Amino acid sequence: MTLLLNGFELAKQCRAALSEKIKTLPRAPRLAVILAGSDPASAVYVRNKEKAAREVGIESAVYRFESITQKELLTLIDSLNKNTDTDGILVQLPLPEGLDEKEILQAIDPAKDVDGFHPLNLGKLMIEEPAPIACTPKGCLKLIHLARQNLTGLSAVVIGRSVIVGKPMAQLLLKENCTVTAAHSKTKDLPELCRKADIVVAAIGKPKMVKADWIKDGAIVIDVGINRLKDGKLCGDVDFEACFNKCDAITPVPKGVGPMTIAMLLENTVEAMERRLSL
Ligand code: NAD
């Protein structure tokens, strides 16, 4: 029988565990969230993060700006870096046009980089040193582990090579001793590559692109994609209904990877505080 990898439930368990842990800390962890511009989707994501943080006992401060210059944003990040009461800093992406995302992300103190996007932290992932790990791939790995603990020797195909999902995901699976193929828009014969994979992670942004005949019997399928269809419904990058019976385990969309991304942000905030204060 196929296992439904219920990210909603797993995220609930992660949040409950964090909530207990936070009660044992000398003070509440503190997260600063910066929201620049007026993208409605970003505003919803930030509200969800704020609510989730509050519920586990993390204090969050949201800095909202309709418009802000690069210099002003860098000045704010500098002051949050220096503020000893701030454990984590998150800049909601995408930033409005005119702001240099790379420069902004690199300005965040790597010790407070709860999104794990700072080059130093991405580099530490490469050399397998402890560091904040990007929330979405970190959550995906926990979901994969619900299906199977030991991934040694499995073949994995990660579709998508973004810095925030695909690349760190491939690296995490490599660390788990998988043989990893990083596929992307220029990959030849992607269906054939996927057919050989024990694990498929789809992070593409194309509704239902991964078809049932791409999936090997017994594979684990993780769907990162969030796509809105014309009728307003959300769907992933995987044709869920068609693939369900072919695989051993699969994430739904919604209630799959999405809730885990937020839970991992909370976990990264607590871990950042513990590392900073050597707890
Ligand atoms: P991105 O646009 O930065 O990257 C997409 C990747 O897909 C690229 O590397 C590209 O090479 C690859 N790609 C595009 N077309 C392809 C094709 N035809 N064949 C093979 N590869 C192809 O996107 P991203 O930020 O990595 O996000 C990917 C998806 O995941 C989006 O739908 C996004 O909304 C979603 N997402 C979800 C979460 C979550 O928490 N669930 C978090 C981040 C992103």
Indicate the radius of gyration in whole angstroms.
19 Å
Strand runs, count? 11
Instruction: Summarize the biggest pleated sheet.
Output: 6 strands, parallel
Highest-level CATH class of the largest domain: Alpha Beta
Which homologous superfamily in CATH is the superfamily of the largest domain? NAD(P)-binding Rossmann-like Domain
Distance between the termini: 43 Å
Number of individual domains: 2
Q: If classified by CATH, what would the architecture of the largest domain be?
A: 3-Layer(aba) Sandwich
Strand content: 15-25%
- Mean of residue pLDDT? 97
Strand order of the largest sheet: 1-11-8-7-5-6
According to CATH, the fold-level topology of the largest domain is Rossmann fold
**Count of helical regions:** 10
Q: What class would the helix/strand composition place it in?
A: alpha/beta
* Secondary-structure element series: EHEHEHEHHHEHEHEEEEHEH
Shape, per Cα inertia axes: globular
**Ligand list:** nicotinamide-adenine-dinucleotide
What does this structure look like?
The chain is α/β, with parallel strands linked by helices and 279 residues long. It has two domains: 26-109, Leucine Dehydrogenase, chain A, domain 1 (Rossmann fold); 135-258, Rossmann fold. 42% of the residues lie in helices and 16% in strands. The chain contains ten helices and eleven strands. It has helices spanning 7-23, 40-56, 70-82, 101-107, 119-126, 135-147, 166-175, 190-195, 240-244, 257-276; strands spanning 3-4, 30-36, 59-65, 88-91, 155-159, 179-183, 199-202, 220-223, 227-228, 234-235, 249-250. Strands 1-11-8-7-5-6 form a six-stranded parallel sheet. A three-stranded parallel sheet has the order 3-2-4, with helices on both faces. It has a two-stranded antiparallel sheet with strand order 9-10. A hairpin with a 5-residue loop joins strand 9 and strand 10. The longest helix is centred in the C-terminal third of the chain and has 20 residues, at 257-276. 44% of the residues are buried. The mean pLDDT is 97. The structure holds nicotinamide-adenine-dinucleotide. Residues 136, 159-162, 164-166, 183-185, 187, 190, 203-206, 224-227, 257-258, 261 line the site of nicotinamide-adenine-dinucleotide.
